[in-house]
Design goal:
The structure is a single chain. The protein is mostly helical. Helix content is 72%, strand content 0%. The chain has eleven helices and no strands. Helix 1 (15-24) packs parallel to helix 9, helix 1 packs across helix 11 (272-302) and helix 4 (77-102) packs across helix 9. The N and C termini lie far apart (54 Å).
Length: 304
Amino acid sequence: MERDCVQIPWLPLDVLSWSVGLFLLSLILLGMPHGALDHLVYFRLKDQSITLPSLGLFIIIYLLLGSTLVLFWMTVPLVAVGGLILLTWAHWGDGDTTYERHLGNSVPSTFLYWRGALPMIVPLFTNPDHYAQVLSGAVRIAGGSESFVFLQDTRVTMGVFIGLVVLGIAHWINVLKSSEIYPVASWFRQDIGLIALFMLLPPLASIGVYFMFWHSLRHIRVMSELLGKPIKRRDASISWLAFYRAAAPFTMLGIMFVVGQYVWALQWTSDMLSMVGSYLCILWGLTGPHAVICYMIRKKNSKK
């Protein structure tokens, strides 16, 4: 039987409530805005000037791909939720890979899979109840009634834990045995910090913090180097005013989509997790084309 909220002894407040609030802050902070400049990134990668027709075509293709993914979610939400986990796993691992290459570091092939697994897998075996609640809310937004209570089974969580340990061992053997020079100490400290984050906070809260202040912030740093002025200042720092000004139109559009999806879904449910479900649905739609742009950045960096 699913619980109404998850309580952690050293966190006296309703964990689900503040976790949802923290997660949804990414609508306004770095989460949504970090992808709102994809059009600028695309034309810079192509070394093309932005014209009204070319921008219009880009937006049409971007929204067409995103809308197709959202329609897929609304049709087969159970499959789409699994797809979101895998897509986010690949995208966040790709983001860390791109950032390390941006710093001039060589990156082993296992780095992408290992780093992408931490935010997706660690919360599952540390807090399976909360994880199951979030996924159940995600399918309810499309009228689905599937329950993810099976994730609370000890055998499932142990299997997930063992799988992550095997992946981690394989990755670190690959790192330590390689002839390449890697920032081993830095990567190890980062791994410990990320694992601690996902173990100490409930899934929505830890993923919200990671999404805003790790994945999105790193992407913005890479993007500022690519775009230059006015996002990047002369001293190589980020002009946050210029960033938010440039990101504002498409950030507001994304927020409108999320709110619209939520209002439309109220005919089925009005619980708190339905709002998270609406966000995840739109996030699924936007992550697809955004991940393509990020892949283009990584390919460009790998050729340097």
